[in-house]
Design the sequence.
């Protein structure tokens, strides 16, 4: 399933955001594509390259095992794992989660709205 970023992203029947018309180079338009199980290795490689880059920059984020293979596999089988791609290749991986974030239930503070929200996790661009 492909989503042109010029259109509203729809998932589980919910329109969540209108993307701006962006171009990578020339006339190639970016798209979000749900990751298929057979593309797990591509997604995991993107995560591992991002982990290595963070390590080389002296950043400790993602250096304790997270996100691991089980996490990315879970994203994919639950249809939350997406590739950002142009017409020729996958450019990045991200998780788009419409089911909320349990950690946000115990925030010290208050949301500006009680409405539903979308969470983006595990964003890695190549």
Sequence:
């Amino acid at each position: 399933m492909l989503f042109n970023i010029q259109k509203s992203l729809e998932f589980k029947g919910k329109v969540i955001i209108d993307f701006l018309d962006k171009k990578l180079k020339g006339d190639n338009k970016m798209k979000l594509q749900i990751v298929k199980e057979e593309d797990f290795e591509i997604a995991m490689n993107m995560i591992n390259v991002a982990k290595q880059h963070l390590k080389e920059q002296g950043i400790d984020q993602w250096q304790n095992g997270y996100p691991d293979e089980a996490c990315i596999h879970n994203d994919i089988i639950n249809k939350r794992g997406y590739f950002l791609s142009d017409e020729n290749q996958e450019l990045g991986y991200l998780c788009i989660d419409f089911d909320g974030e349990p950690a946000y239930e115990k925030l010290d503070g208050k949301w500006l709205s009680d409405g539903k929200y979308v969470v983006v996790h595990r964003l890695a661009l190549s």
User: Anything to note?
Assistant: The radius of gyration is 16 Å.
